[in-house]
Amino acid sequence: YDVVIAEDGARAIERFHEHRDELSLVVLDLDLPRKSGHECLREMREQRPDLPVVVVTGNGDGLPAAAARQRTLAKPFRMGELRAAVGELLGAARSG
What we know:
Elements: H1 9-18, E1 26-29, H2 37-47, E2 53-57, E3 70-74, H3 79-95
Parallel strand pairs: 1-2, 2-3
Helix pairs in contact: 1-2
């Protein structure tokens, strides 16, 4: 995979706009500085409602509503869980 990294929510949105049409999937932590993961998710969904997203959180409160092409992983998680979520979402995106 080619990975685009952002150190905070504001940068995540900047990078999203820079690579908007190239992105196949986003892994997004809800607990981000400068702009929350919830805000990032909402903005990304407004512009790319079909974009698969793996939501990562260490806090079970305030989880985003379940959505098509979205999976939630609770921290801490194993890399195998992340691989499975990514594979599932990318497989669904290719077939649907």
